[in-house]
Amino acid sequence: MNVDTCEINRWELLRRQLNNLDQQRFEELLQASSDAIVLDVRTQSEFEAEHLPGAIHMDYFGPDLIEQMDALDKTKPYLIYCRSGRRSVRVCVLMRNSGFKEVYNLDGGIKAWQ
User: What is the biggest distance separating any 2 CA atoms in the chain, rounded to whole angstroms?
Assistant: First the structure.
């Protein structure tokens, strides 16, 4: 066992497998893609407090998250965000593993938007 190496935590490994966009690239893709769908995966109260224009709410903690995902068109591009980027990473992984072709994560979440 090599004690000089540093293990990467599981969340970081998942994040590295995704299309992570900073705020500028996220916004550019949103403007460039007429069929892109923005998903806000925060709680209802977080969504009501503020959300990106045109965002669809899909609560990560909701009991019907998987059913809502299954109802989405897998051929469209999805721009996904949460508060800090952790929930959206998990949703992106779920969507990618479910056959969605274009899934993009707002790196740093809506906190990075300001």
Answer: 51
- Residue 73 half-sphere exposure toward CB, CA atoms < 13 A: 7
This prediction has a pTM of: 0.86
* ∠ CA 10-90-111, rounded to 5°: 100
Burial of 95 (0-12, 13-18, 19+ CB in 10 A): buried
| Residue 87 pLDDT exceeds 90 | yes
pLDDT band of residue 114 (cuts 50, 70, 90) is low
The three-state DSSP-derived secondary structure of 6-64 is CCCCHHHHHHHCCEEECHHHHHHHHHHCCCCEEEECCCHHHHHHCCCCCCEECCCCCCC
Tally of CB atoms within 10 A around 91? 22
DSSP state of 76: S
**Is it the case that residue 92 has pLDDT exceeding 60?**
yes
